[in-house]
Amino acid sequence: MTASPETLERPVSLADRLAEQLRREIVDGRLTPGQQLPTEVQVARQFAVSRATVREAIGRLRHDGLVVTRQGAGAFVASAGEAASFRIDAPNLADRAELQAVIEFLSGVDSTAAALAAERRSATDLAAIRDALHGMERAMAEQGSGVEEDIAFHHAIVAASGNPLIRDFSRFLEARVRYFIRTARANTARLAPELAGAVHAEHERIYEAIAARDPAAAKAAAEAHLLGAAERLSTYLG
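Request: output the structure for the sequence above.
Response:
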C-alpha cells in the first residue's frame, strides 16, 4: 500500500473513503488474493485515521466479499472462492445517467419493503414508523435537516417488512447508494427550506398507506418519494 495520508480528504464518511482506497489496491492487484492486510494500527497510522475508522472500512470490504477475517489472524484479501458474487461501487450522482440507474434500482427495493410493511406491520412496527415521522416533524420545526430521523423512518419500514433479506440488503445499500436521499434532504434543509413541507408530505403518504394496510398505495408512495428526492438532487446539481 503506497498511499499517503494526503491522498484522503476528510469526507462525510472517512470509512467509506478508506474502504474505496483499499478496494482500489485490491482491484489493481497491489493487494493479492490470500495476502494479509496490514494491522489496524498500521493502516490507521498510514492514513492518519482512527482504528475505529479502519475497522469500519474493513467491515465494508468484508461485506462486499473482498476481504475475509480470521479470528486471531487478522484480515486477508479474499480468494476467488471466498469472494462475493455481487458488489456495488459508489455511483457518481452528478452523472444524471448514474442517478437514474440508482433511482430505478432503489425503487424496486424500497417500494417492495413499503408494500410488505403495509401487509405485515404490527402495531409496534407502526408505532416505530410513526415515531420517526414525528421526529422529522420536530426536526423541521427546529430548522434541522432531519437526516437521522429520515434514516430511522426508512429503517423502521424495512424492519416492518418482516423480510430478513430485504433488511440485510438494505444495510448493504445504505453506505453505497442510498445516501443520495440523505444528500437531497440535507440540501433541501440548507438551500430550499420552503420545500421541507413537500418532503414531509411524501413521508406522510408512505406512513398513511402502511397504516391503512394498503400495499399498492405504499408502493406508489415510496416510488414517488424516490423520484422527488432525485428531482431535488438534480436541481442542486444544476
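The domain at 96-237 is CATH 1.20.120.530 (Four Helix Bundle (Hemerythrin (Met), subunit A)).
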